[in-house]
Amino acid sequence: MCNLNNRAKSALQELEAQPFNSDRDASKFQEVALLIKALAEIMKIPILDNEGLLNPSSLTIQAKYKTLGGI
Question: What are phi and psi of 60, to 5 degrees?
Fold first, then answer.
């Protein structure tokens, strides 16, 4: 979570540092959007299930965003 959050903040700061240019900044914008989407989706998944065991959905979400690194 912290790695994804730090990457999203850093990329967003890069975008905000200068006026938006779609030719130059489109891929960075997409990266920020994906990182924020991943963070939101991860935060919605309960860590434990109703029996107090690790929620299997957390493994699914981890696999889904593994390519982003750090999770």
Answer: -65, -45
Q: Which residue has the tokens 């963070």?
A: 39
**8, 32 in Cβ contact below 8 A?**
yes
- Summarised one tens digit per residue, pLDDT across range 6-64 is 999 999 999 999 999 999 999 999 999 999 999 999 889 888 888 888 888 887 887 88
Annotate 36-65 with b (16+ C-beta within 10 A) or e (fewer): eebbeebeeeeeeeeeeeeeeeeeebeeeb
Global confidence as pTM: 0.74
